[in-house]
Amino acid sequence: MIDTRDLAEKREELQTNLVDSFNDYFDTEIEDFDELTKHIDSSENEDVQEWRDDNSDDFEHIEEIDELEDEISEFSFGETLIPNDDFTEYCEDIVNDCYNLRDVPGFIKDNINWKGVASDLSADYTNVTYQGESYLVRA
């Protein structure tokens, strides 16, 4: 599972590293990522464009996080990205956290259709993709 606040921190770290790397490489004093992207976009210097290409993975990662932020309304407050393959187990944990199933007899508790519960709860979630993996996040 991934918390969107961790993604925001990762984006900030990537942006800072790119600014620092650019400043070190070109001996400039660019202060922030927005200034860096404006500088790169307006530059006709082939070395700047080559540096951009060499760091394209980080730029694409930042863009992917930006897109997730646009898709997830509560991104800045911390939403959880749950891998699709783990959603049934996640729902079981949620139900166990919210309801006291310890007192329910085993012959009932052991026959709960957790896939059905997950299917019903999935109506409150939306699918997103991050780093090529599919996740569910609260809609």
Could you characterize the architecture of this molecule?
The chain is α+β, with helices and mostly antiparallel strands and 139 residues long. It is 59% helix and 13% strand. The chain has seven helices and four strands, in the order βααααβαααββ. A four-stranded antiparallel beta sheet has the order 1-2-4-3. Strand 3 and strand 4 form a beta hairpin. Helix 1 packs antiparallel against helix 4 and helix 5 crosses helix 7. The model has no long low-confidence stretch (mean pLDDT 96).
- How would a textbook summarize the main sheet? 4 strands, antiparallel
The assigned structural class equals alpha+beta
State the distance separating the first and last CA atoms: 16 Å
Low-confidence stretches: none
Helix content: 55-70%
Q: List how many beta strands DSSP finds.
A: 4
Shape descriptor: rod-shaped
